[in-house]
Write a structure and sequence with these properties.
Elements lengths: L23 H4 L6 E7 L10 E7 L5 E11 L15 E4 L5 E6 L3 E8 L4 E12 L7 E10 L2 E19 L2 E17 L4 E12 L8 E9 L4 E9 H4 L2 E2 L5 E6 L6 E8 L3 E9 L4 E9 L2 E8 L6 E9 L2 E9 L1
Parallel strand pairs: 2-9
Antiparallel strand pairs: 1-3, 1-13, 3-4, 4-5, 5-6, 6-7, 7-8, 8-9, 9-10, 10-11, 11-12, 12-13, 14-15, 15-16, 16-19, 17-18, 17-20, 20-21
């Protein structure tokens, strides 16, 4: 069963500057939250250096596919709540599996999950986040679990190893990077498997979930393997799918100072209406053009517009999508 440790990132509506500290009130996970992520091409990706005043420039990241949404719910509404009765929040994998967590004022613990066939239970929970947590902080915790005749023992090491500026295709953000090293052994009477997962999470002050996550998982035993995964918030990268699944939209840079580029993919040739409105709902730019199937780019010159928040509205067929753009 897949164990959800990636917290499928967030709905981002702001920017943060200055020192970032993780707190349970700002970064804790509670029922009612919804997050959305996209996979990102890992080719050539390097998480960068640790330390203070870092600049992590990932402005050229390229997303793959469409957004994956995740809803966090009251565990009592899930089918396996009786097994994980101490859980305070749960989320599903979309195919019948659920993961369970305990959120307190000082930490977020993973206590297990089930798909209805396999039940993973952490009798010594895995600490996923500590609160408050600032640059330079660290924490080491042992954990133990059991499932289907398999015993799991391991150690989680958390380190807030970097702070500085995170540059994404949509703009720049003051961020805290938290590095986690999850090292555990699964063993039966005849098989022993060692797993090491290194994860880098970049957080900003105003969002519950990391805005960017990079993980490397290595497995060794009778066979060995390694996998990499890079996830980015659908909102922070500026990509969201229209309700009718006809178009994907990426806006950059965001915030913008003069030119903002709308990048979108069409499944077929069609007319697309693009309109930019101010916060009063007044149209400051509009265009209707025919675009080809595949990737398209459209530039809007915002140089003469006052600083503030604008809404880019894109209509395609029966679909309608609004994306917030900040003019600096």
């Amino acid at each position: 069963m897949k164990k959800f440790l990636c917290f499928q990132l967030l709905l981002l509506c702001g920017f943060s500057f200055g020192q970032v500290t993780l707190t349970s009130s700002l970064h804790g996970i509670v029922p009612g939250l919804t997050s959305s992520v996209l996979k990102v091409d890992t080719t050539g990706f390097n998480p960068g250096a640790s330390g203070s005043a870092q600049t992590w420039n990932f402005s050229s990241l390229f997303t793959i596919g469409t957004a994956i949404n995740s809803n966090y719910v009251d565990p009592s509404t899930t089918p396996y709540s009786s097994v994980y009765s101490s859980a305070t929040v749960s989320n599903g994998d979309g195919s019948g599996g659920y993961s369970y967590y305990i959120q307190s004022g000082t930490e977020l613990d993973y206590i297990g999950g089930s798909d209805g066939v396999t039940y993973v239970y952490y009798f010594d929970p895995l600490v996923v986040n500590k609160f408050p947590f600032s640059f330079g902080d660290g924490y080491v915790d042992n954990f133990s679990a059991y499932y289907s005749g398999v015993s799991r023992t391991g150690t989680m090491t958390l380190t807030a190893d970097g702070s500085g500026t995170l540059i994404l295709p949509s703009g720049s953000y003051s961020a805290l990077r938290v590095k986690s090293i999850e090292n555990y052994t699964d063993s039966t009477s005849s098989v022993v498997v060692h797993v090491n997962i290194i994860t880098y999470n970049w957080y900003i002050a105003t969002e519950h979930f990391p805005v960017l996550q990079y993980s490397i998982a290595q497995l060794s035993g009778s066979t060995s393997s390694m996998s990499k995964q890079l996830l980015m918030s659908a909102a922070v990268v500026g990509i969201e799918e229209l309700s009718n699944n006809e178009i994907e939209l990426n806006t950059y840079p965001n915030p913008a100072t003069d030119i903002v580029t709308l990048e979108f993919y069409l499944k077929e040739e069609q007319n697309v209406s693009i309109e930019l409105k101010n916060v009063l709902g007044q149209s400051v730019f509009s265009s209707v053009s025919e675009f080809n199937n595949g990737s398209n780019r459209f530039e809007i010159n915002m140089k003469t517009l006052p600083k503030g928040i604008y809404l880019a509205e894109v209509q395609c067929g029966n679909g309608h999508h609004t994306k917030r753009i900040i003019k600096r």
